[in-house]
Design goal:
This protein is of the alpha+beta class. The chain is built from eleven helices and twelve strands. Helix content is 35%, strand content 23%.
Length: 270
């Protein structure tokens, strides 16, 4: 029996077939989507305290935008705790300093930071239909190693505000996630650039290097080299990396790309 591995494959096959509602067609759909997480219970707390209490229970997962939770095929069942009613979508700005609520959508980042690195990274992070869903806090909490938005926050020296009033750098939070994120603060100014290499211009980059120049110097953040983006402050830092190895690129190839792209970024910002 043919098992389709993606909705696109399913659509292509269905377009070649006559419309039908046979048992076989149903099996194809079921086989394709059987590993999608099953939400067995849903909560929408009205306060941060209520959300924290729920998230302390087993199998309870924070639902920020849903772009990560819905794609997580390693879970069979989960209890969703929807954070959208907590008032965490507020954005405030004073000069170049921007305070994003954890539930601020990436589409709002584009508007608030137009012309800046953060807007460009948000635009490249997800398709337009998902940028209205994905959130800043969710992006940080997911800690994706290929996330350009996360890399841009790291290169910009962004910090995370947590539910108990703590504040820690995004870089540190991603390496050791702890409390619920309520906000992300960042200084959106300074020269910046992005260099990347992918199979196609619109594909997720195999490796990308994001750079920001500030009063403290140049900070780089690399995607596609580890399970989270990696911060570097010099070419020597990049040369010492041992990138991951997978079907999209060997460790040696990713290392070569990292050094080459890093040289370009440093050259542009120097």
């Amino acid at each position: 029996m043919l098992v389709l591995t993606s909705p696109r494959q399913l659509l292509r096959r269905r377009m070649r077939q006559k419309p039908c509602f046979s048992g076989r067609a149903f099996i194809l759909v079921s086989a394709n989507f059987s590993s999608v997480p099953l939400v067995v219970e849903y909560h929408r707390p009205e306060s941060v305290a209520e959300a924290v209490e729920l998230l302390q229970q087993p199998d309870h997962v924070a639902l920020a935008g849903g772009t990560v939770v819905n794609a997580d095929r390693n879970r069979s069942q989960l209890v969703a705790v929807d954070l959208q009613s907590l008032g965490l979508d507020v954005v405030s700005r004073e000069a170049s300093r921007v305070q994003f609520g954890a539930m601020c959508r990436l589409s709002e980042v584009e508007k608030q930071c137009s012309g800046d690195l953060l807007a460009e990274a948000a635009r490249r992070e997800l398709p337009s239909t998902l940028r209205t869903v994905g959130t800043v806090g969710g992006t940080v909490a997911a800690g994706g190693g290929e996330s350009l938005m996360l890399a841009a926050l790291m290169a910009s020296g962004a910090s995370v505000r947590t539910v108990n009033g703590g504040e820690v750098s995004v870089e540190r939070y991603v390496s050791a996630p702890s409390e619920l994120i309520v906000g992300v603060d960042v200084n959106a100014e300074g020269a910046w650039t992005i260099e990347h290499t992918g199979r196609t211009p619109m594909d997720t980059p195999i490796v990308a290097v994001v750079g920001r120049r500030s009063e403290d110097g140049i900070t780089l953040a690399l995607t596609g080299v580890g399970t989270q983006p990696v911060v570097a402050r010099s070419l020597d830092d990049i040369k010492q990396l041992i990138p991951i190895d997978d079907f999209r690129g060997s460790s040696e190839y990713r290392h070569h790309l990292s050094v080459t792209l890093g040289e370009r970024v440093l050259g542009d910002l120097s």
